[in-house]
Amino acid sequence: MNEIIIIGAGVAGLCVARNLMDRGAKVTVVDRFEGAGPHACSWWAGGMLAPFCEGESAEEPVVRLGQEAADWWAAKTQAVERCGSLVVSPTRDRADLARFARRTRGHREVTVDEITAMEPDLGTRFAKGLFFEDEAHLAPRTALARLREGLASDGAAFIQEDANPDIYAQHGLTIDCRGYQAKRQINDLRGVKGEMLVLSCPEVTLSRPVRMLHPRVPLYIVPRGDGVFMLGATMVEGRAGKHVTARALLELLSAAYALNPAFGEAEVLEIGVDSRPAFADNLPRIRRDGNLIRVNGLYRHGFLLAPAVGRMVADLIFDNKRPEVMDETAT
Amino acid sequence: MRDFYGTELSNGLMLGTAQYPSPAVLADAFKRSGASVATVSLRRESGQDRAGQDFWQLIRDLGVHVLPNTAGCHSVKEAVSTAHMAREVFATKWIKLEVIGEEDTLQPDVFGLVEAARILTEDGFQVFPYTTEDLVVADKLLQAGCEVLMPWGAPIGSGLGLNNIFGLRAMRAHFPDVPLVIDAGLGLPSQAAAAMELGFDAILLNTAVAKAGDPALMAQAFATAISAGQMAHAADPMEPRDMAAPSTPVIGKAFLE
């Protein structure tokens, strides 16, 4: 098979590249930047591999396909921590916890004693919680860097160029994985703004992602190790901008403070904002137009769904197998 | 049927557009319920970026009346500038005016509300004020130029239903010609039906539908309940009484003993 061009070196592009190389293809990855960085959504990902928790509001394919993610990332990057995830709510919002339990599976209810045993730094602040034992998390930047190193050492080429997939497709099979950058070519794509923070707070130790339910400000916090935490994330429709709003910062920080007052003394290492690419149903799409395959719409599920989507792209190319998320309505 | 600034609505459901699992589910909720108005919240930080426009376009594509709101505004100035932005984005004079006065109950700041309503009305807006059932405030809003009133059922997002039936009934009786919309606090269709039975003209809700397990089905349930309540009100319901009143006459019944 001839060389396959992949445009976009975020989580979608690299997972597609890895899947194609594993099937014996020769790949070249083209990105407008050299290496990963804050321009890409993947840079700001929480890195929760939490298909069951996502089931609270996501469609069924997210829960099912997302279950492939932890094993895939573990095999390809050794960057996966398998400690489950914990969902808690302040006492006054306990109704939200009951609702979350009803909408999801793969969890068991835990008491305050079990919570304290699992995460001593949550103390006795939360009377009840839900533990999702089979979920995992990873450090997204480490995982992407390792994926990229692995591809390079297996012979993949990386080119820095602001490429137009339509032009590349005139010369051979091209896969457009540019995320929201592809908006001009993919009219029904929309950007959903996400805002997040990286904090350093060595006083607090958490072993697993914790989600705190709140009617207005749901928060997740993912431990990165060495006292570093990722806090996210607002999901804002119809709002965009290059910068985080004061309101979002205020809400994220006060939610963290509610989780453990020691976060009041944390240092803010990074403030991030991105535009997650999504279609109307928040599910990914694979579209094919001759030599051009467009992979997009991973929404907030990049690390969770990219392994499955990458596999589908490989199945399409090598076996002519129609992917589950194939979209033939659009050209 | 009372109209809303000259617009007659095809049904009494005004549906919010926030908090749905996805825009596809949102669109389905509108389709299944036939809701005639979509409320959409704008914030000043929305800006004019293209990414922000994607969602506005989805709202326009619903093909229903758009009622932008000033949700989350805590001051007159904030609400007024949000209203101006909304007029630009959606090319409509309608504005649902919210000036929040208290963070825990999201209770309206009625003083700021009246002031903002006056400013916006003078500027050509058609204001739908989110207010309490207070009759004096309602009267001040009408004086400020509002031709629609939107009293709360209960605090926003609480799902508690109609907290003050007496106050709402008094409001209906006090302003027989003003279109009245129950805005916020409903959790169940039966509560919407009860409001329509009191003679209210429409129901505005969001969370009860968006956060239901099946939002489209819940939207349809609300639309059905609203239409049932509307019919019941039009049919002039019986008055309740303390004693039983047999529906079949007992006089002339055979004695079997």
TrEMBL record, chain A:
Gene3D superfamilies linked to this entry: D-Amino Acid Oxidase, subunit A, domain 2, FAD/NAD(P)-binding domain
Q: Which GO terms describe its molecular function?
A: oxidoreductase activity
Keywords from UniProt, A to Z, are: Oxidoreductase
**Where does the signal sequence lie?**
none
Q: Decide whether keyword Cell membrane is in the record.
A: no
Q: Which GO terms describe its cellular component?
A: cytoplasm
Q: Does the keyword Membrane apply?
A: no
Q: Which domain of life is it from?
A: Bacteria
Give every FAD dependent oxidoreductase domain span.
Answer: 4-316
Q: What is this protein called?
A: Glycine oxidase
Q: Specify the species.
A: Litoreibacter albidus
From TrEMBL, chain B:
Q: Which reaction does it catalyse?
A: [ThiS sulfur-carrier protein]-C-terminal-Gly-aminoethanethioate + 2-iminoacetate + 1-deoxy-D-xylulose 5-phosphate = [ThiS sulfur-carrier protein]-C-terminal Gly-Gly + 2-[(2R,5Z)-2-carboxy-4-methylthiazol-5(2H)-ylidene]ethyl phosphate + 2 H2O + H(+)
What are the alphabetically sorted keywords of the record?
Cytoplasm, Schiff base, Thiamine biosynthesis, Transferase
Q: GO CC annotations?
A: cytoplasm
Q: Can you give the residue ranges of the Thiazole synthase ThiG domain?
A: 5-249
One Pfam family this chain carries?
A: ThiG
Residues annotated to bind 1-deoxy-D-xylulose 5-phosphate: G157, A184, G185, N206, T207
Entry's localization field: Cytoplasm
What EC number(s) does the entry state? 2.8.1.10
Identify the CDD domains for this entry.
ThiG
UniProt cross-references to InterPro entries, sorted A to Z: Aldolase_TIM, Thiazole_synthase_ThiG, ThiG
- Tell me the Gene3D superfamilies matching this sequence: Aldolase class I (3.20.20.70)
| Record GO biological process | thiamine diphosphate biosynthetic process
Coiled coil stretches, renumbered: none
MF terms per GO, please? thiazole synthase activity
Give the pathway annotation: Cofactor biosynthesis; thiamine diphosphate biosynthesis
Tell me the superkingdom of the source: Bacteria
Q: So what does this one do?
A: Catalyzes the rearrangement of 1-deoxy-D-xylulose 5-phosphate (DXP) to produce the thiazole phosphate moiety of thiamine. Sulfur is provided by the thiocarboxylate moiety of the carrier protein ThiS. In vitro, sulfur can be provided by H(2)S.
Q: Which PANTHER family match?
A: THIAZOLE SYNTHASE
Q: Which family does it belong to?
A: Belongs to the ThiG family.
Protein's name according to its UniProt entry: Thiazole synthase
Q: Which gene encodes it?
A: thiG
